[in-house]
Each structure stands twice: as structure tokens, then as C-alpha cells.
């Protein structure tokens, strides 16, 4: 019996020592302390074959063994618990003393978006709604509905990207393509702006780009006059270039307005004295505008006898170039990070 006990003791010790974690310890617990089939239980059951006079002493031996083993077991258990806790804490630990890693640079808005947002804020503050529309456009909305007949030079292949194998479709050459679309979807009175990307088949240079941005707008109601138009456009110019900005309107032909004007602001770079940017005229062209042609109102299902309106279109790229002193329009689409990070 004593032999068996010391054998169990040794085996138990080595298994206990070998347990690397609480899971492995559980296995050891099963082997020795399971009530049903553990080694201690086995020993206890073996007592029934022991002669009566020895039973008490042997029983005592087994109990002492059991107490000793349990004590060792609990010590090991608390050691492993501490170890596992330390490991989890270690894994979740954040080293606050670690030097700063190079931060990810977050992106920022493109200069055209900055100015577009500024104008959207201004127009919505005056009660305008904002409409978005397709860049791939039918010839109808881009030209025909805008009183531009089929033979008009603006439709020439030189100016426009036509879509191969899809006759009648073009990349819109201006945001005016949204005029009739918006009229058809709404009822007067209307105050709308329609900013967006446009395309022209340009031979590109410092002032011309095949992809550019415009901000279109119109107001339609009863009793709308050229004076209303001037008032609004002056306000926009002052918002962009300061309260002393002067605006000049000069007649210009656009098939979809009558009368049509070309809007200029006094050159704020040279105070109208004449410089390279204003081509020594003292004025900078920033928009086209005019009273909406009755044919266009009718195409938009609006009674041209009852309603009038004015429309305008700003070249956003030009506004941005003037605001930030950008000398070449091609920077905007160029994607050069050295240019973009300046804004
Ligand atoms: N769509 C014209 C252009 O691209 C600008 C314009 C808009 C003119 C609205 C008059 C009225 O040049």
C-alpha cells in the first residue's frame, strides 16, 4: 500500500509540474480527484479488501495523501491563473511611451469643390434648390431643347465629344443641359442651381481644358426682369471677391437666352488698371447669362406668356483660378499632389 501511495505521489507531482495551463490542469484533476474514477477514489475503494485491523491506519494514510495532493494542486492552480491573467493583460497592453508613428495624412477638398460649396451655401441661403444631372447627355437636352438648331456650329465635332455607336448622345458641353430637365420636373416659381462637370473637345492650353466645371442656375416666376438677374449676380460676385466688386454686363449671343449677356467683374488684381490676367482690359469674364428664351420655357412645359426667368452659368474653374491665382487650368485635372496640397 505504501508503495502504491508513493507511486501515485510521484506520478501526480510530475503531471502537476508538466501542466502548462488551466486546461491541462483540469485533466490532472480528473485523473486524481474525480469522485467516480479518480485515483484517490480507487484507493478508497481498495480499502474493502484490507483486513479490518489495518483499515483505520490505511484510511488515514489515504486521507493524508489526498490532503497533501490537494494542497499542491491548489497552489499550482493559483500559479497558472496568475500566469494566464498576466498573459492577457500583456497582450492588451498599450505602450503609452512608444514614440508617435508617422500619422496618415487625411485628404482634403479639391479647390473647385471648395468654391462650389461656398456658392452652394450662398445660393441655398437665398432659397435656391440644388439639382444634379447626367454628364452623358442627349443631344436634345444639350442642344435642341436650348434653341440650338441642328446646324449650329456649337454642335460641331470640334467642340463636342460624341459617343461612338450611340448617335444622339454627347458628353454635356455645359450645365445648361439641366435647364429643360429641371423645368420639366418642377413647377414655377423655381429657383435652382445645377453645378457639375462638363466636357469639350478642346485643344487644351492654360485657359482651356477638355473637362471643366460650371455652376448653372435659373429663376422662373411671374414678373422676373433683367434687373432681378443683375441683383443676384452682383451679390454672387461680391460674395466671391469682396463687397467693393463691380459687375459689368455686356450683350452676348447665346441661343437659349434673349437678351443674353456676358458678365464681368472689375479686375481685382490690378484694380482695373489692366494686367496680364485681365488681358489689359481691366475686366474679367466670369459668367454668361440672360433672360430665358421663350422656346426654352416652352420645351420645359412652362407657359412663356405667363412666366419669365433668367439663367446664368459660371465657369467654376475660372472663379477658382482668380480666387487662388492659379495660372494654368490644367492643374485642376492633373492630379499633381504638389499642386493639390496647397489648398
Ligand atoms: N451655357 C453657357 C456656356 O457654357 C453659359 C450660359 C448659361 C449662358 C446660362 C447663358 C445662360 O457658355
UniProtKB/TrEMBL annotation:
GO biological process terms on file: phenylalanyl-tRNA aminoacylation
Cofactor binding note of this UniProt entry: Binds 2 magnesium ions per tetramer.
This protein's record includes keyword Chaperone: no
Catalytic reaction equation(s): tRNA(Phe) + L-phenylalanine + ATP = L-phenylalanyl-tRNA(Phe) + AMP + diphosphate + H(+)
PROSITE patterns, sorted: AA_TRNA_LIGASE_II
One Gene Ontology MF term: magnesium ion binding
Pfam families: Phe_tRNA-synt_N (PF02912), tRNA-synt_2d (PF01409)
EC number, as in UniProt: 6.1.1.20
One GO CC term, this protein: cytoplasm
Localisation: Cytoplasm
The entry's keywords: Aminoacyl-tRNA synthetase, ATP-binding, Cytoplasm, Ligase, Magnesium, Metal-binding, Nucleotide-binding, Protein biosynthesis
Obligatory cofactor(s): Mg(2+)
Residue ranges constituting the Aminoacyl-transfer RNA synthetases class-II family profile domain according to the UniProt record: 115-342
Family, similarity comment: Belongs to the class-II aminoacyl-tRNA synthetase family. Phe-tRNA synthetase alpha subunit type 1 subfamily.
NCBIfam families: pheS
Description of how the protein assembles with itself and partners: Tetramer of two alpha and two beta subunits.
HAMAP family: Phe_tRNA_synth_alpha1
Record protein name field: Phenylalanine--tRNA ligase alpha subunit
Lineage of the organism: Bacteria, Candidatus Magasanikiibacteriota
Amino acid at each position: 500500500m505504501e508503495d502504491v501511495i508513493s507511486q501515485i505521489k510521484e506520478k501526480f507531482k510530475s503531471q502537476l509540474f508538466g501542466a502548462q495551463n488551466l486546461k491541462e490542469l483540469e485533466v490532472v484533476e480528473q485523473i486524481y480527484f474525480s469522485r467516480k474514477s479518480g485515483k484517490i477514489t480507487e484507493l478508497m475503494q481498495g480499502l474493502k479488501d484490507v483486513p479490518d485491523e489495518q483499515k483505520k491506519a490505511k484510511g488515514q494514510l489515504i486521507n493524508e495523501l489526498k490532503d497533501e495532493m490537494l494542497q499542491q494542486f491548489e497552489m499550482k492552480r493559483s500559479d497558472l491563473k496568475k500566469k494566464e491573467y498576466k498573459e492577457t493583460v500583456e497582450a492588451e497592453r498599450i505602450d503609452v511611451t512608444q514614440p508617435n508613428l508617422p500619422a496618415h495624412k487625411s485628404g482634403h477638398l479639391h479647390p473647385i469643390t471648395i468654391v462650389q460649396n461656398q456658392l452652394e451655401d450662398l445660393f441655398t441661403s437665398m432659397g435656391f434648390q440644388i439639382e444634379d444631372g447626367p454628364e452623358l447627355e442627349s443631344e436634345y437636352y444639350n442642344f435642341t431643347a436650348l434653341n440650338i438648331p441642328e446646324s449650329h456650329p456649337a454642335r460641331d465635332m470640334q467642340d463636342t465629344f460624341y459617343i461612338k455607336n450611340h448617335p444622339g448622345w454627347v458628353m454635356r458641353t455645359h450645365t445648361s443641359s439641366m435647364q429643360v430637365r429641371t423645368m420639366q420636373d418642377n413647377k414655377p416659381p423655381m429657383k435652382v442651381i445645377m453645378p457639375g462637370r462638363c466636357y469639350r473637345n478642346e485643344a487644351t492650353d492654360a485657359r482651356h481644358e477638355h473637362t471643366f466645371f460650371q455652376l448653372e442656375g435659373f429663376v422662373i416666376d411671374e414678373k422676373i426682369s433683367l434687373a432681378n438677374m443683375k441683383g443676384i449676380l452682383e451679390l454672387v460676385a461680391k460674395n466671391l471677391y469682396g463687397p467693393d466688386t463691380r459687375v459689368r454686363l455686356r450683350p452676348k449671343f447665346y441661343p437659349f437666352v434673349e437678351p443674353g449677356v456676358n458678365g464681368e467683374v472689375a479686375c481685382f488684381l490690378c484694380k482695373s488698371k489692366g494686367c496680364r490676367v485681365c488681358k489689359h482690359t481691366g475686366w474679367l469674364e466670369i459668367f454668361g447669362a440672360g433672360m430665358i428664351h421663350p422656346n426654352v420655357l416652352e420645351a420645359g412645359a412652362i407657359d412663356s406668356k405667363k412666366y419669365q426667368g433668367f439663367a446664368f452659368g459660371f465657369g467654376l474653374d475660372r472663379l477658382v483660378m482668380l480666387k487662388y491665382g492659379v495660372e494654368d487650368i490644367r492643374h485642376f485635372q492633373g492630379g499633381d499632389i504638389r499642386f493639390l496640397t496647397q489648398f
